[in-house]
Amino acid sequence: MCGIRPQQAKQVLGIGFIGLIPFILLFYAYNTSSSQHAFQLELPPMGERRPTSNDGELALFNEMMRDWSPEKPRAVIYYLINGDNLWRLERSLRLLNKNFNRKYMYPVIIFYEKYLSDEALWKLLSQSPSPLFFQRVTFTKPDSIKEPLRAAVKRSSCPYPLDKSRFPGYNHMCRFHVRLVFESPFLANVTWYWRLDDDSEILRYISYDVFKKMENGGYMYGYNSVHEEDPLCVEHLLGNVTYYLFNQPIEPKNYYHWPKLDIFWNNFEISNVKFWRRPDVWQFIDYIDRQGGIYYDRWGDAPIKTDAVTIFLDKNQTYFFSDLRYRHGVKNDTWIDTFLSTDIFEIPVVSLVGMVLLVLIVFVFVGPFSR
Ligand SMILES: Nc1nc2c(ncn2[C@@H]2O[C@H](COP(=O)(O)OP(=O)(O)O)[C@@H](O)[C@H]2O)c(=O)[nH]1
Ligand SMILES: [Mg+2]
Predict the structure, then answer these.
(1) What residues are neighbours of ligand 2 (ion), with CB under 5 Å?
(2) Could you tell me the distance, in angstroms and rounded to a whole number, from the CA of residue 174 to the centre of ligand 1?
(3) What is the rounded CA–CA span in Å between residue 45 and residue 249?
(4) Is the pLDDT of residue 1 over 60?
(5) Which fold has domain 54-333?
(6) pTM (2 decimals)?
(7) Rounded distance, CA 177 to CA 363, Å?
(8) What spacing in Å lies between the alpha carbon of 322 and ligand 2's midpoint?
(9) How many Å is the Cα radius of gyration of the chain?
């Protein structure tokens, strides 16, 4: 009486299989995720390239740039990291390599602050198909700040970052992107740079050379998103910029048409080095830097650079990379992050074939063939 007929059994099994499919997808997503290296491709031979001193890294970099093809944009990709949470950088690099740089092989410069062992650096090197170069940076108090930095940063009412112990490291980081990076010898002989952070993720394959896009379009500044800044984090900045513009013979290009709190979210930023080194732009950056607001008021690099771009560039010299799937700010490698950042196209072909076969089996059990 309570027995199940063979036909029903087949249907139950078939439905069970269908129910399993999302879990199988999840399983593959997890296994191809950044936290795993199972899907790492094209590792260079072990021991071929070892980390060296700052000068040694620069010499290697210059050697590489000497042989740079004249047809290829002279460009670098750079990161500044503090040295904690290297897994974030590993993930970011993995996605950058997989979705862009494995094809284009632009040099990637890692500026880092805290001591990193040779093993840690070598691990990064051995995982990265694209050429990596390391530079240890040390930050000091700028001359324009007379008091101890700890006292200076207390003035700001900007609520970010939430963890106040990150001052003044966070402020140094902002100042690095505003000016110090342009003083680095790594950017001295290149035309283009692409800045990324260790919590930057290129989620989808980029089918073209982003630097060529900039070069061919005559663009100077490329961005991926615009956000509204918290007014508490730009206190006194507007006043300083207005004062500067009033006293300089500058005709702002787009500044007065730009919403005052909008900022290019420059954790993704592709730009022309020569623009930032232009005397008028440099003078503006230097002026803003000397006001000390990066420390006193926690002005971020994003609002300062947005001001420079909107003052000195026409709108048609900026480019919105709207087609790129980019994500920033993932703090933890939870399974849902992993799942959301995994593209169906990431799943290896073999697994896809396996899944198609599985679906066919299900059809054989419950579909028209089973009758
Ligand atoms: N050298 C250095 N890098 C930092 C420091 N704080 C953050 N960074 C790096 O700067 C980038 C942006 O940091 P993040 O915490 O994501 O800043 P947010 O996006 O503005 O919240 C990341 O690559 C960090 O590793 C710091 O104190 N020193
Ligand atoms: Mg971030």
Answers:
(1) 197, 199, 329
(2) 8
(3) 56
(4) no
(5) Spore Coat Polysaccharide Biosynthesis Protein SpsA; Chain A (3.90.550)
(6) 0.83
(7) 57
(8) 19
(9) 25
pLDDT at 208: 98
The pLDDT confidence band at residue 359, using thresholds 50, 70 and 90, is confident
Distance CA 367, CA 354 (A): 19
Ligand with an atom nearest the CA of residue 233: 1
Q: Is 82 in the pocket of ligand 1 (CB under 6 A)?
A: yes
- Backbone conformation region of residue 218, classed left if phi is above 0, alpha if psi is from -120 to 50, else beta: left
Atom of ligand 1 nearest to the CA of 328: 19
Residue 54 CA, distance from chain mean position? 23
Tell the residue nearest (CA) to atom 1 of ligand 1.
Answer: 82
Strand partners, 328: 200
Distance CA 196, CA 199 (A): 8
**Above 70 in pLDDT, residue 23?**
no
- Which ligand has the shortest distance to the CA of 195? 1
Q: Do 225 and 270 form a contact (C-beta atoms < 8 A)?
A: no
CA distance 272 to 275: 5
Residue matched to tokens 């290829």? 72
Kindly report the backbone phi and psi dihedral angles of residue 272, in degrees, each rounded to the nearest multiple of 5, phi listed first. Answer: -95, 125
- In short, whether 80's Cβ falls inside 6 Å of ligand 1 is yes
